[in-house]
């Protein structure tokens, strides 16, 4: 059974190294990538998880809804899992929970901050996941014990309320994870608990896992209060409607926007399911202190003057199906741009999305909207992650013996390691790991294991998990289809007499236009006809042999003539 207590700010004494077993620490997601944060601590017959996140697909994953870790190891050891500890409520830390609980229905409890707990409940309901797993709310004073581990929490600043770091005491040493964090001296949410961080450093931290997202950014991350001030200035200047877009996950920014709108006597129209959901949750929890009549429905906006309206919408990254893109394309059923509207992008373009964002901005400008985007001269967004000087402060407070940078691409992890070394971590004690690499902790010492856990990504398509082998093949085919198109070759044969009954039919989709390529099509049919007739001379011919023959003969010819590698699909019709 798990025991729960409350700390009264007493000093946490280090646990003595009385154990014959090692402690294993590894990630199933979150290393060499942004997102999918899932970290595992295992000792003997006990496993605890820190976060269970999801990663959103990029343009190389057509048709994929989400990317989650491979939970095979957890399924094989499901009886060992005692709890999941959640640091905060962002998708890359809680989005994998519905998929994990579908796979493993024996996890006793999820411990989460209040807002994250509410979001998890909504997420499980939306996904239709019924589970016996209990969700318990934690705060900075909570202590949870198992036979092997003692877990407590410390408040950190982030772009969402109720963000915490996690400290895990094991018989082999202390493990501390920051979750996502920054230092904000004028935060919108709770103050970071520097006293507890410093106390952990005094008590001794064996292994420290720290957020690396902004490891390459020098200096300090800007405070949210500067963004509040700038947004308020734009609201005061705007003479017509205001359309403003930000990340739905940036709860503090949403709070700012709605409260600034209320202060300027503007009604708020919310467009986008993700925004509606998060606003409903934070209003219920008291994180949004505005009157109910601050919000109106889209069809009620016509009752007000333009300078009394704010439209809070999705689409800050130029996503084609998001509200702002549809508005820019004049495809939104309820909202049309009115010349003189002010459109504010309270976000920064994620790498890879810049062209999409610029495309939307150009379309909005053509419609005579006034567009305000984030820039060094027009601060409309700040990160929720620590920059280099804050990372130095955190490491100096925690004073770890060993260090593992987490939550970042490889270059971010490498830079974070260098930062840690610059403030006193020994180079040989800093590990850059990939998902599945195991750190072994034994009696206060750590080393990398030569054994790995399978941690390949699993792709979610339409809400259903697909195996890695199948998924890789499907994604590869989709990539080819999106870039190269497909060619179908329909062949009719008489398998009893090994005869071709008619010339093959050539069908092209997305590769080249058949009507404009008659000579190429005729030559392709001739090549396929000859290849099939040659094969049919053999006594034993299978459909697989015929299909491979068509592909191997046609593909080089198409590439030579068109410099394209379309997906070639042979269709064999057999007369019986």
TrEMBL record:
GO cellular component terms, A-Z: cytoplasm
Positions with a binding annotation for Zn(2+): 88, 90, 92-93, 158, 180, 407
Cofactor note (record): Binds 2 Zn(2+) ions per subunit. It is not clear if Zn(2+) or Mg(2+) is physiologically important.
Binding site for substrate: 248-250, 381-385
Entry's EC annotation: 3.1.-.-
Chain's role: An RNase that has 5'-3' exonuclease and possibly endonuclease activity. Involved in maturation of rRNA and in some organisms also mRNA maturation and/or decay.
Assembly: Homodimer, may be a subunit of the RNA degradosome.
Entry similarity comment: Belongs to the metallo-beta-lactamase superfamily. RNA-metabolizing metallo-beta-lactamase-like family. Bacterial RNase J subfamily.
Protein name: Ribonuclease J
Organism in which the protein naturally occurs: Spiroplasma platyhelix PALS-1
GN (gene name): rnj
